[in-house]
Amino acid sequence: MIKESVLTELQKIVGNEQVLTTPEAKKAYSYDGTTNWVHEPDVVVFPKTAEEISEIVKLANREKVPVTPRGGGTNVSGGSVPWLGGIVLCTTKMNNILKIDKENLTATVEPGVVLQDLTLRLASDGLFFPPDPQSFFGATIGGIIAENAGGPACVKYGVTKQYILGLQVVLPTGEIVNLGGRTIKNVVGYDLLHLFISSEGTLGVITKAELKLNPLPQARKTSMAVYNDVAMAGESVFRVLENGVIPAKIELLDNWVINRIEEMMPLGLPKDADAVLLFECDGIPEAVEKETEKIVEITKKYGAIDVRVAKDQDEANKYWMARRAGFAAVFGKAPTVLSEDVTVPRGNIPALIRKVKEISKKYDMENCVLGHAGDGNLHPSVLTDIKNKEHYERAVKAIEEIIESAVELGGVLSGEHGIGLEKQKFFRRTMDPVAVELMKKIKALLDPNNIMNPGKIWD
Amino acid sequence: MKDLKELKKIEKFADQCMKCGFCSFFCPVYQEEKVETAVARGKNYLTKLAIKGEQEFTPEMAEIIGKCLLCKRCVANCPAKAQIDRVVVGARAQMVKEKGLGFVKNFAFRKVMADRKAFGRYLRLAKAFQWLLPKTEGNIRHLPDFLKALGKGRNIPSLAKTFLRDMVKPVYKPQNGETPKMRVGFFMGCATDFVYPELGLKLIDFLTKRGVEVVVPEAQNCCGAAIYFSGDFETGRYLANANIKAFDDVEYVITACGTCSSTLKDYQKYLPDNEEEQKRYEAFEKKVKDSLEFIINILNVKPEELTLKKEFEGKVATWHDPCHLIRYQNIKDQPRAILKSLKGLKYVEMPNADLCCGMGGSFSVYHYDLTKKIADKKMNGIKATGADIVVTACPGCMINLIDNALRNKMPQKVYHLLELVEG
Lengths: 459, 423
What we know:
The complex is a heterodimer.
Chain A: H1 4-14, E1 19-20, H2 23-28, E2 43-45, H3 50-63, E3 67-70, E4 87-90, E5 97-101, E6 106-109, H4 115-123, E7 127-128, H5 141-146, H6 154-157, E8 164-170, E9 176-180, H7 193-196, E10 205-212, E11 214-215, E12 219-227, H8 230-242, E13 249-254, H9 255-264, E14 275-283, H10 285-301, E15 306-309, H11 313-331, E16 336-339, H12 349-362, E17 367-372, E18 377-384, H13 389-408, H14 424-427, H15 433-446
Parallel strand pairs in A: 2-4, 3-4
Antiparallel strand pairs in A: 1-2, 5-6, 6-10, 7-11, 8-9, 8-10, 12-14, 12-15, 13-14, 13-17, 16-18, 17-18
Helix pairs in contact in A: 1-3, 8-10, 8-12, 9-11, 12-13
Chain B: H1 5-14, H2 23-26, H3 28-33, H4 40-51, H5 59-66, H6 73-76, H7 84-99, H8 103-113, H9 116-128, E1 140-141, H10 148-151, E2 156-157, E3 171-172, E4 182-186, H11 190-194, H12 197-208, E5 212-215, H13 225-228, H14 233-246, E6 252-255, H15 258-265, H16 267-270, H17 275-287, E7 288-290, H18 291-298, E8 316-319, H19 323-326, H20 333-341, E9 346-347, H21 363-366, H22 368-385, E10 389-392, H23 395-407, E11 413-416, H24 417-420
Parallel strand pairs in B: 4-5, 4-6, 6-7, 8-9, 8-10, 10-11
Antiparallel strand pairs in B: 1-2, 3-5
């Protein structure tokens, strides 16, 4: 339990109204976007400035109270769940876009800015911020950076870390530090900036970010290739790339997912197909046309039985709506869904998909595969029920084997969701032990009292 | 063991939420408050705990469950298709069952609104005292003290000199003297009855000009929106039964109020307590049509056959989607088709036309400050269009849009779509 005096001090720092301690508020900040990770904080605070955050963290460090930074709480790793109680430091009220610099293609934002709000605002200036985690309706920039989030557009544009030029961070001991800057190139000293990207809120609180922007592409074109073998779809991914086309997005949906989406909202997807790939090209109109033609040609050559090019934006929106509905379709279908975030080098996608199907068969598990095939990041899922012990244990075994085979294929445990609580048990198994020790030393150096998002990443 | 009957009914809806949090972007209340208890995901989570017996209906919980406009933007944009409106209304019903309605609600709903005669009396009394208060702008006045709970100093349209109920005849035959092509019942709704009686007369005139016989049953009651959305299902069912009985012998029930039409249709969704009621309410739903839906889809009036009233010649108009039309009834194309085809009128779509105006019935009584903030966003959308007039089809929205346009010193006037149309 948190001391009464700490609560009083928190109220002094941010004002009474920005400190919540009711049982209802604590319950509402006990979860994130995952299914089963729940733990209540002792208090929720809503700071408005880096200085307030610094004061809060200094207080917490002095009193050894855990602090869990939180934005929109849309993450799917358990990362923003206050696992050891203490303070939830919620940045949703720090949501100002401070500056948009069209000449330098940069934006300065507070951590609580919601990605979709930023996207809409930038679009009105003909700009865009490429990282596109599919939680964009609720995800905040602070969280996106802390998780180094990615999404479909990573094939062409890469992940969040490629778009962060500078950060302001409050360290676990309360100092405010500015890292990086506003330039594309910067080799002054150690690259500390990137230490905080994907730190999952364990090394400090991001209070301001300098983002690198791109001009908004003038044209987009969507096409859908249909396959009667999901592994063939996997092969098409690298065939398209090796033939010189880098689409903005390449997404995969397998037969199971296609049919669940069609049950939810009939969109005219091919229900008999073993898998479909969705492609989106963006850029200058002429280039987009050419690239799309090339995709049609290559996918047909490498096993697509049908390729549809969306005739207009309405049809394109329909396909992307289907992709976005994918997760809802999966999670709505079973009491518990174990969904992974493994990522392999692109050439091994077909092998990974075959493995997933093989393992699921071995354990007799209803399963599906969807994900960002274009960057090798798949979300194989098995459907189970945590209340059915025998079934659930089998499901866990299946997932463990899927993760092991991804690592054997040269891949990693998590491509974009992070470790948080959800993937802790696999963390050490897939990580170089020397690297783990190094990480722990860095953590101890920055956070001597282990107050910043404790209980995450490693056991 | 506590009887969790109303919660049990909504358990399957509460289980739909997968906690993705996308609703936060669409929730007008969350957008102002930025706190998890304001958004659908938080409300749903706490209600799930209540279902499991791990959350009591404390005053805090009552506040959380109460602070929802029921605009259904979260529902419309939910990837898991979770019906949070049913969860919120169900939780409120359980709360009423356990704790009873608060004094204000008890007084307003049980004693006044459920008794149509009494409601009329109170409003008449209010009207009689209107001269005591300073006249504000146009025909908008402040209401007397004893209706302050409802008014809270806001601009409220003055009440009609004569209420619609005192003007209407029980039966209107088709104006051409021919055999009626159908017989419909006209449901007034309180705002049309007390504030916009001419709107009701207009609809009757419009329909009887087109061969429809219109009856106006005296036994009709309040639609029940403010009552059952607050969780008072008992009074809600009383009203549902009274209205179903009153409109027993007509083919269709027509109303010019978006809230009323959706409320009458949705008896079957929220209120039934047994199978017999379920069937009866479902049968009633099929008869209920909003005026715009009836005119375009049942009477098959072609939008291009309609002519614009002279006074609106050369005006620029924009459309506000009432929540109860666009999301409760999927009525969005009909009004736009009419507005776009009216010769002499220029139509401009407003940004976020589907955004709730912030009224939410009794929401605006208890959370008027929030209502104003939400309405300001609506007003920004209206300003961006450069329109002269704002058109909608829900008197509830009209009252709130007028209040906030005046508060923001905007020149735009607010009209019901039927008011723009000749004959």
